[in-house]
Amino acid sequence: MSEDAPAPAPNTATITLDFDVTQNGVVVIPAGTSIVVKKPMGGALRGTNLGGIIRMDYDQIALVMPRITTPVLLPATMEIDPADVSQIGGELVDFLLPKRAKEQLFPAT
To answer: What's the mean pLDDT when you consider all of the chain?
Structure first.
């Protein structure tokens, strides 16, 4: 890591949008934009089903997405490509899985 690059914030991940995010046909966030995904804590998970997030259920990811993304992504009013939703969902699952489960799923080689 170079001295100029900021250290990544704890409990965050960054994804890069593969596709434009549009609203009413107008590009509001262009492809290639970095989106910071914060680890959801209790308040951000209010009203969700953790099992649904682990199963990558779109409705559950869409409910949490505006609470944990910077810039804010609003699936209810924005058209977000499923591939980008999957990237965010993958980060959510990674945040929610216990370390032991990750070690069992992805053993060190």
So the answer is: 89
pTM of the model: 0.83
CA dihedral 96, 22, 58, 15 (to 10 degrees): -20
Distance between CA 99 and CA 25 in Å, rounded? 41
Taking a C-beta distance cutoff of 8 angstroms, is the pair 17, 31 a contact? yes
| Short-list 92, 86, 89, CA closest to 40 | 92
Q: What is the spatial distance between Cα 83 and Cα 107, in angstroms, rounded to a whole number?
A: 26
pLDDT for the residue numbered 9: 66
3-state SS track over the chain: CCCCCCCCCCCEEEEECCCCEEECCEEEECCCCEEEEECCCHHHHCCCCHHHHHCCCHHHHHHHHHHHEECCCCCCCCECCHHHHHHHHHHHHHHHCCHHHHHHHCCCC
Cα angle for residues 97, 108, 55 (degrees, 5° grid): 25
Q: Which pair of structure tokens corresponds to residue 43?
A: 């308040």
